[in-house]
Amino acid sequence: MVDRLVNTESNARRINCVEKCFGNSGQPLTIPGRVLVGEGVLTKMCRKKPKPRQFFLFNDILVYGNIVIHKKKYNKQHILPLENIKLETVEDDGNLRNGWKIISPSKSFVVYAATATEKKEWMAHIRTCVANLIAKRGLAENALEDSPVWVPDSAARTCMHCKKSEFTLINRRHHCRHCGIVACNACTSKRWLLPQQSSRPLRVCLTCYHKLAGKSTQEPELAGGDESSGEDSSDDDDERNDVAQSRQSTSDEVSFDDIQLLYR
Known about the structure:
By secondary structure, the protein is α+β, with helices and mostly antiparallel strands. It has three helices and 13 strands. Strands 1, 2, 3, 4, 5, 6, 7 and 13 form an eight-stranded antiparallel β-sheet that branches. Strands 11-10-12 form a three-stranded antiparallel β-sheet. Strand 3 and strand 4 form a beta hairpin. It is globular, with a radius of gyration of 19 Å. The chain starts with 8 loop residues before the first helix and ends with a strand.
């Protein structure tokens, strides 16, 4: 079905609409052979708390962004190539239910669907798109190291590395970009180049630094004291743009529970 819709006017119109919703802050999404498969709102576990994000599943990429005006305006666009994505289910924990991990070399995180059916459908469609893309391009299994899923700030009152330093307004939390733990500034005082995540050296905890240094000749760099833990994770830190709107379907949308599956 997806292959038959590659060059249709309907597909081109939908992709163009997504581009317009991101405005000048987003990258162009229209390329030959790309199909918009589905879209919907998922709750993304961010550094500070769970937040709604708009997701768009294409046949070759997964795109998501902050909701400014639902169905009309999004910002802080993130694009993940599907061939590098892996999925892992997450056990229910209190009010956080129907979740799974989206894992990739550049960025990994947890998302939650509104219902178990929605979770099942999202995971099935992503996996189908990944499998079709890998088969079509004849790609080998991804050998790149995946980025970690960050531990939420709320899960750590003290440094997860030294187990001693308590976090305060002055003693801020930082994340190790290699293992994802929450640690104090002293325990993340080194930087390491993790090319799948950034072109700049990123904070790593001392344990990860020693492991990485033992396998490389790369010289470490000290992490700047003014750096925010949210570096390279801008969608996690902008509270002002989190204007989450209720999920409403309109007459021109194809709906499957809370997922808008455009093509089946």
